[in-house]
């Protein structure tokens, strides 16, 4: 008995979750939290929030600052326990509503609903009366307007657009699938970011977000074979490319691809996205010296990026190297910022009797490495949601007809597209009034 009571209490609690007001409230809370997650950058370092959300700037001193963000977990809001609890409640709300309301409503929609009086339909129904009685004509009129018809003695029930009643069920099902996909990603997914110089080998190690049961692919080794940038005519960047080669832990080649933005490399459910790039340093020779690697500084002037470095030529003077693109001319200035000359890569120039040769500009590529095991489930949920939304625009319409010795009563109801339904009623009345059956065919149809 205690087990039965516990089940009843649990079911009653779940049924309360299925109320429309609670579902809408949960959905609004989810939307509000998602909006905060869109405004506040996610999964950044504490130093980043200290810099961008300081305490001593009005009017955010009492509303939002880096301490509030860290303490409330707004820096990782989508994995925050509070957000997960809200999603779980919304999941059970949809699930309970589907089984307690939607499926029974669909089952009832398929039942024959003969009425002895059309007044039994709700107040929003359309009512009309026809003076002469012809069961054959009304059946034919409903059939021409694509209604499914059920006839019993002097009563008729017909409907069309049953798919419009199925659509809400699929909407719930699609959202449930999407939430399941998100839960799978939350448990088993991870995200890493790497900045790798061209020609270097890398492992997946810089984890910025990981699921509770996620596992890193420790048998994968990557190498950046090549990095290049394609520019527009106005010197802006059109696209940048990275050639990634994948090896196993035995240094055996597995896969390779040129990736760019919106064209990642996918291998064994691990996705490598192109996200960013940086210039790391330059390699050069001064006189008869060995190859020297010099760090590059990035500057922004008039919304244009410039890279520069200060290079000593001898004990008395130095030059400044400036360039704006990879594989482009490098401009050389003296210590008084006077332009001297420009050279290309691997081209020699003599400055103060000293030979200078730029061998290579070394770039870094930014990669985001992700495992999303629930992504296929999530995409399936979105696809079903789009289809069900289109189907939901179909109207579910019902028409009841009752006859007496003196006249015929017709009542109709639809859940949407009222004007279209009124046109259906007018068409049915016109066909019923104007169509004349051949006498022998009329007798045969009515006898059936």
Helix content: 25-40%
Instruction: Count the E strands.
Output: 21
CA(first)-CA(last) distance: 55 Å
Radius of gyration from CA coordinates: 36 Å
Folded structure, characterized:
It is a single chain. The protein has 448 residues and is an alpha+beta fold. The chain has four domains: 1-106, no CATH class; 126-161 and 395-436, TATA-Binding Protein, CATH 3.30.310; 187-278 and 366-386, no CATH class; 279-363, no CATH class. The chain is built from ten helices and 21 strands. α2 runs antiparallel to α5, α3 crosses α4 and α7 runs antiparallel to α8 (375-392). The longest helix has 29 residues, at 81-109. The chain is elongated. The relative contact order is 0.14. May interact with CcsA.
């Amino acid at each position: 008995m205690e087990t039965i009571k516990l089940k009843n209490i649990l079911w009653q609690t779940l049924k309360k979750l299925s109320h429309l007001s609670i579902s809408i409230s949960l959905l609004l809370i989810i939307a509000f939290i998602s909006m905060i997650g869109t405004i506040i950058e996610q999964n950044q370092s504490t130093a980043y929030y200290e810099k961008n959300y300081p305490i001593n700037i009005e009017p955010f001193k009492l509303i939002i600052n880096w301490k509030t963000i860290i303490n409330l977990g707004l820096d990782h809001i989508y994995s925050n326990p509070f957000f997960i609890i809200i999603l779980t409640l919304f999941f059970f709300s949809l699930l309970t509503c589907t089984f307690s309301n939607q499926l029974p409503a669909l089952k009832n929609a398929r039942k024959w609903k003969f009425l002895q009086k059309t007044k039994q339909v709700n107040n929003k129904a359309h009512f009309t009366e026809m003076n002469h009685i012809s069961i054959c004509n009304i059946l034919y009129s409903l059939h021409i307007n694509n209604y499914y018809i059920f006839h019993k003695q002097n009563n008729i029930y017909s409907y069309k657009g049953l798919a419009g009643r199925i659509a809400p069920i699929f909407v719930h099902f699609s959202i449930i699938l999407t939430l399941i996909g998100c839960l799978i990603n939350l448990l088993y997914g991870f995200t890493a970011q790497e900045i790798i110089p061209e020609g270097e080998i890398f492992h997946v190690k810089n984890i910025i977000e990981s699921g509770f049961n996620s596992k890193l692919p420790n048998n994968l080794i990557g190498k950046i074979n090549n990095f290049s940038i394609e520019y527009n005519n106005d010197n802006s960047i059109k696209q940048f490319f990275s050639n990634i080669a994948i090896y196993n832990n035995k240094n055996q080649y597995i896969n390779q691809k040129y990736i760019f933005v919106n064209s990642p490399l996918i291998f064994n459910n691990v996705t490598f996205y192109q996200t960013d790039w940086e210039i790391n340093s330059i390699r050069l020779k001064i006189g008869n010296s060995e190859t020297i690697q010099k760090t590059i500084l990035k500057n922004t002037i008039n919304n244009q990026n410039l890279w520069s470095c200060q290079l000593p030529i001898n004990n008395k003077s130095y030059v400044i190297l400036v360039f704006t693109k990879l594989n482009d001319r490098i401009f050389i200035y003296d210590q008084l910022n006077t332009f001297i000359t420009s050279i290309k890569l691997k081209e020699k120039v003599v400055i103060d009797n000293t030979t200078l040769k730029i061998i290579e500009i070394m770039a870094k590529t930014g990669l985001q490495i992700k495992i999303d095991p629930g992504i296929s489930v999530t995409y399936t949920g979105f696809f079903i949601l789009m289809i069900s939304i289109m189907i939901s625009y179909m109207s579910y319409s019902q028409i009841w007809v009752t006859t007496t010795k003196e006249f015929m009563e017709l009542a109709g109801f639809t859940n949407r597209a009222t004007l279209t339904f009124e046109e259906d009623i007018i068409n049915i009345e016109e066909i019923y009034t104007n169509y004349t059956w051949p006498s022998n065919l009329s007798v045969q149809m009515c006898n059936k």
